[in-house]
Each structure stands twice: as structure tokens, then as C-alpha cells.
Design goal:
This protein has one domain (43-164). It has 166 residues and is mainly alpha-helical. The chain has seven helices and no strands. α3 (43-66) runs antiparallel to α4, α3 (43-66) packs antiparallel against α7 (146-164) and α4 (74-97) packs antiparallel against α6.
Length: 166
């Protein structure tokens, strides 16, 4: 019985992941994972997302104003303006840092990605707030009949189709 155990141990020992090929494979996988993580969280890529989100939020705000579903709210306009200026500053800094790999990596490790993600979160929160206010206006008020509410919703969706074709 002892000979079976020794044979099993020798099989397990020969199958252990100490071979050079396995070490190289794990090294390549770790390098690929690290490179992918840096790419996904890079300030350059996140800045493109931020610019796209700020444009969508602005478009949503303007659609709501034009459709008469949202009155010109000073607080929302100020927040949108503040976020546009912040996004512009972030984009400028990111473009300056993207001129050299060293500056881009330094910005990444100093937490520039977190700053961009924080701004993206704020922009999306404002966009969601605008959407909520628009939906509140689409509900049928007591003084309005159902047919007028339906025509308001169609007017809004028609203008939304117009803007999506840009």
C-alpha cells in the first residue's frame, strides 16, 4: 500500500505548476490583466466617456427646454455650466498629459482617473435628474386631459428622434 502512495506522490509532484512554461504563461496573463486594467481606467479613455456624457446631458436638457417640459431652472443650468467647465479643464489636462507616456502614467498613478470618474458620476447624476423632471412633467396633471398628455409625449419623442439623427 505504501508503494501506491509513493507513486501517487510522484505523479502529483511531476504535475505541479513549477515548470517554466507555466510560469511564463502566468506571467503573460498577469501582464495582460495589468495592461487591460490600465487601459480601461486610463484618463484618456475616461475623458472621451466624460465628453460623450456631458454632450448627452446637454442635449437632454435642451430637448426638455424646447419641448416645454422643463422650465429654465437656474440650479440645473448652473450645475450644467459648472460641469462643462470642469469637463473642459479635465480634457485639456488629459490632452497635455497624453503627449508623453511618462506624464500619462504619472497622472494615472496620481489618481487622475478617479477625478475623471467622479466628474462622470456627477454628469450622469445631473442627466438622470433632468430625465426625472421631464417624466414628472409628462404625467397627466389634473387640469389636463389624457389626449393633451399623449400629444406632449409624442412631441417630446419626435424631437428626441430629431436629435439622435445628428
Amino acid at each position: 500500500m505504501a508503494s501506491i502512495t509513493e507513486a501517487s506522490l510522484s505523479l502529483v509532484a511531476s504535475a505541479s505548476p513549477t515548470s517554466t512554461a507555466t510560469k511564463v504563461l502566468f506571467g503573460v496573463l498577469a501582464l495582460t490583466a495589468a495592461t487591460s486594467a490600465i487601459h480601461c481606467a486610463s484618463p484618456t479613455r475616461l475623458t472621451r466617456v466624460l465628453v460623450f456624457d456631458i454632450a448627452n446631458t446637454e442635449r437632454t436638457y435642451l430637448q426638455a427646454i424646447e419641448a416645454g417640459m422643463l422650465k429654465s431652472d437656474v440650479h440645473i443650468a448652473e450645475n450644467l455650466t459648472r460641469l462643462q467647465i470642469t469637463a473642459s479643464t479635465i480634457r485639456e489636462d488629459t490632452l497635455r498629459n497624453s503627449l508623453s507616456y511618462r506624464a500619462a502614467l504619472c497622472a494615472f498613478f496620481k489618481g487622475r482617473s478617479l477625478t475623471v470618474m467622479h466628474c462622470i458620476r456627477d454628469v450622469r447624476a445631473l442627466g438622470t435628474r433632468i430625465e426625472i423632471l421631464k417624466e414628472e412633467q409628462l404625467r397627466v396633471p389634473a387640469s389636463e386631459n389624457a389626449m393633451q398628455a399623449v400629444s406632449r409625449r409624442h412631441r417630446y419623442t419626435d424631437s428626441a428622434k430629431f436629435y439622435k439623427s445628428d
